[in-house]
Each structure stands twice: as structure tokens, then as C-alpha cells.
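Limitations

Structures in this collection are predictions, not experimental determinations, and the ligand pose is part of the prediction. Treat each record accordingly. The example that follows, with 3-acetylpyridine adenine dinucleotide as the small molecule, is included so readers can see exactly what is and is not provided: the inputs are given verbatim, and the output is the predicted complex.
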Amino acid sequence: MATAAETTPKTDFDAIVVGAGFSGMYMLYRLRDLGFSVRVFEAGDGVGGTWYWNRYPGARCDSESYYYCYSFSKELLDEWEWSERYPAQPEVLQYLNHVADRFHLRPDIQLNTRVVSAVFDDASGRWKVTTDDGKRYTATYFITAVGCLSTANLPHYEGLEEFQGTWYHTGQWRHEPVVFTGQRVGLIGTGASGIQATPEIAKQAAHLYVFQRTPNYATPSGNRPMRPEEIREIKAHYDEIWKKARESMGGFPFDSIEKSALEVSPEERRRIYEERWQQGSFRFLNSFSDLLVNKEANDTIAQFVRDKIHEIVKDPKVADLLSPTNHPYGTKRPPLNTGYYETFNRENVTLVDIRNAPIVRITPTGIQTTENTYELDSIVFATGFDAMTGTLLKIDIRGRNELTLKEKWADGPRTYLGLAIHGFPNMFTITGPGSPSVLSNMPVSIEQHVDWIADCLAYLRAQGIARIEATQHAEEIWVAHVNQVADQTLFPLANSWYIGANIPGKPRVFMPYVGGVGNYRKICDAVAAKHYEGFEMAQAIAI
Ligand code: FAD
Ligand code: N01
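Predicted complex:
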């Protein structure tokens, strides 16, 4: 007969991790390897995070496959083969499921379980965590791996509940196949999701109306199948590839460019832009060193993209409308595309300008703007996410003295290194605000954060330290540094989700760290080398 200990499910852990995407799965792998007991809670009924939720037509990564993956296991790198330069969502999800199986992660991941609150108990020095099924757990460490882009932004439109057709959000796509054949479809939003979905939905729909508030700079991905010789070459050079990515500005294994866009002739500049446009990938943004810090330099690449839009799109009025002029290139996350602009040459596609004629309401049969009414069978919201802070703030997180994260971040997020928060002991935020995260090729940033946290926990254990907390002073200095670096760039010139501009009422604070992935890594390593400078630590009390 089973004993009580065997039948009572375990509720107390060294670490509780929230989220089972790239971040949470690697955190589990590292901590378990170090001998910590870990429970991962995941709201979805599968692992994969972003790649579990975003199943809209056209969803694929725009980091190239050979570096949009984990680097921690040589065996995994050797055995996995990507089929395309930018794999589609099902393939990335398949990869993450393979990782879960390959490293036996599933027994410690509890699916279909949303963490609703996490409260630090000062007396015991433990986090008390409650899940949406009412169960309670405790842990010494509370680690969020909730993703920067995991809470869908559904704008409030009067009348949506009366819409008689079907509506979808790209970030919460249905699991059953969605077919738009023969339908009149309205798609709202022209960020990366809308730009990927538009060409695919246009192929199916009787008519597609794209409702655009702000045009975006979409550049070619250059997607194609991976070639066997290229795979061999990449596998033979992985050490160099990862070294380059880790030391780079953006976590991409690209050669660093020292030249200003303004120090070459207009002809040479155009030649370079053209060459990189043809190559595809974010190498286009990497054409010159000063594109994100010098407006005059940026104007040259922005104009190049606008010229390309006019070359591709046949109707000059539509081309004008698709051409961004209100923000510098790259200051909103620049999407890569496959056939986006070409789609507007199709007879079954109409671009609707909702900047000048905004949506007034959703009617039972479509969308009404200040100028027109569009009869629709389906509406697709490609309206993005409450990025970086939205998912964290949905959890009732309380630190010392019942301080809530909501109160702490009422004027915008404040962290030390994007990893820790003053007032919240023994809590770590993977890719939190104040770290490079969304401004980088994320797997590189995720692995760096996870490794730093795992090393920190191993250090604390070895030193008999029970509690670690970022000091207010360190946090203030870091926040000031994050802002100061951002102010030296063109990023603050755009109304982007990087500053929370997409969510009405959200504090306008530039959230990611733009100082570069390589520099940031050095800063984090130096903090650790100086015995976690900027953190206060308390010894465990011997009983
Ligand atoms: P996520 O993958 O978002 O996982 C977080 C998980 O936490 C989710 O599964 C969520 O359900 C769970 N969760 C959240 N709150 C709770 C809670 N309270 N309780 C329980 N579970 C919870 N980045 C790139 O670098 N390159 C790309 O090409 C790229 N392509 C992208 C394409 C799309 C469509 C999107 C939306 C994002 C893309 N990104 C890309 C960013 C992408 O989010 C990251 O690359 C990466 O997948 C993030 O992994 P993560 O584990 O940190 O977060
Ligand atoms: O979201 P977005 P996304 N009324 O916020 C519009 C990653 N990603 O899901 O610009 C009308 O970028 C909004 O208009 P405006 C990537 O990091 C990567 O597309 O605010 N329109 C905008 O056009 C990306 O940056 C891939 O004026 C409204 C759009 O909706 C991030 O996820 C693919 C509106 C939202 O664009 C988010 O991308 C997909 C309103 N009330 C996502 N509210 C890859 O390719 C918003 N909009 C790898």
C-alpha cells in the first residue's frame, strides 16, 4: 500500500517557475541539473509558449532557424535539422516539444495551470503561490518565465459581442483549423503578426480588408528551404556562431559594421541596401552602424524602403498609404515579410486607412468606420500584446510588506538588470523589463538570463544564503542607465509597444535595454563576479 508521503502530491519546492516556453523549459533543465526541486506551471495545455499560442496563418519566426534555437546542448544542435530558413509555427512548436521529451522535462511541468498569485512570506522567507484551481504551493525562489509577448491586446470596440461572424486574435489562435475560403475578412493591425497573416489570408478569402492605423517598414525575409551543404557548414561552425551572437548588439551572429551610412556615397549606400534587401533577414537593419542613433542616417534607409514599396505596389495611392513616415525605421520592431506588399496588388484585397477614418464600432455584420461600413464574415485582431509587463501584472505578486508589483510599477517597470526587483526577495524575472530581451534574438538573451539565475542560486546555496534582494540604490542606478542609453537612440521617437504606447493608460516608459546583448552580458557577469554587487543577502539561520 502507498504511504501518505507517496500519495500526497508535493507542494513545496526549491523553485517555482511560471511558463513553459523557451525560458521556463531551460530554467527547469538548469535548476534540476543542479539538484534543485522545481515545479513549472504553464497556463496552456502544451509547452512552447509563443509557439503554442500563435497559430495564425503565416506565423513563423523571423530570426533565422540556425540561431532561433537553444545553444546549450551540442547534441541537440547536432541532431535537430530545420527545414526552412525561417520555420513556420508548427515546426518551432515541434522543436520545443522535442526538447521537452529529449531532456525529460515533462514530469516537472504542470500544464493547464495558471498562477494567479505569488506572495512573499517574510516569516518563512518563502513564496506562497496559488494557482487557478485554488491549490497552494511554496518555494524558496519564484521565477517568472511568462514571456514578453504573451498577453493579447484586444482593443475595446463597442459592439464586438454582437458581431454575428467569428473573430480571432493572432496571439490566441484556435487549435482547430480555421479556413477563410469564400469569406469577407477584416484584419485589424499591421505589426509583424498582421504582416505575416495578410498574404496567407488573402490567398483564401473572397475579400480581405486590412485596417491600418500605422504603416510599418516590412523588409524581405528571403525564406527558402535549408540546403544540405548550408546545414553542414552551420553545424561545423556552431561555436563561432554562438560566440558572435553572444557578443553582439542584438544577439544575432552577424559581423559588426563600423561604417556610418553617411560616410559613403548615395550610390554606394543604395548598393549596400539593395544587396541586403535581396539577402533578407535583419542584416538589412545591420547595413550601417548608426541607423538607430542618427536620424539623418536613418532617413536614408527609411527612404529606401519607401521607394521599394512604391516599386512593388502598383496603385500609387495605396503605396503612399503603406509608406511609413511617422517613425524612423527600426524604432518599432521591424517585421520581415514574404509577399506582404505584393498582396495589395490583388483584386481581392483593400487597404483601409483607419488613421484618418477610425473604427467607430463593430456592427453585427462588420466594421463601421467614420467613413464607411464593411460587411464581414470574420474579423482578425492582429493588435499585438500588452508587452513586457502585462503578463507579470496579471499575477497578483506581492513582495515584502505586502507591496504589490502593481503599486511598485504604477509609473512603469523598475528593475535591477531586468532580473530582479527591490522589495521582492528571491524573485527573478527572465527577460524582464530593463533587459535586452525583445530587442534581441531572444534565445540568446533567454539562455543568458537563465544561466545567470541558475549560477546565482548555486552560489547562494554554496554560501548558505537564504535571501537575496536587489537594493533600491542599484535599481535606481540601473533604471537611470536604461533610460539614458535609450535617450541616445532614435527609439523614443516611435509610439511603439516598447514604450507601452499601444495600450491606453499604460505608463510611457521605454522598457527594454538597448545597450546591446554583449555589453549587457558583461555587466551581469561583473555583478556576479563581485559577489552579486547591488544585491543584499541574508544568511540562512542555523537551527
Ligand atoms: P513565451 O514563449 O511567451 O512563454 C511564456 C509562457 O508563460 C506561455 O506559454 C504562457 O502561457 C505562460 N504563462 C504566462 N503567464 C502565466 C501564468 N500566470 N501562469 C502560468 N503560465 C503562464 N523572438 C525572436 O527572437 N525571434 C523571432 O523570430 C520571434 N518570433 C516571434 C513570433 C511571434 C508570432 C511572437 C508572438 C513572438 C516572437 N518572438 C521572436 C518573441 C518570442 O516571444 C520569444 O522568442 C520566445 O518564444 C519567448 O519565450 P518565453 O519562454 O520567454 O515566453
Ligand atoms: O503586434 P504589434 P504584433 N486600433 O503591436 C494595431 C513579435 N512578433 O502581434 O502601430 C487600431 O506590433 C497597431 O497599430 P499602431 C514581434 O516582436 C514577431 O504584430 O499602434 N489598430 C499595429 O499595427 C512583434 O513586434 C513575429 O498604430 C490597432 C498592430 O495593431 C511583436 O510580436 C510575428 C489598435 C499591432 O502590432 C508584436 O507583433 C509576430 C487599435 N486600437 C509577432 N491597437 C515574427 O515575424 C493596436 N493596433 C517573428
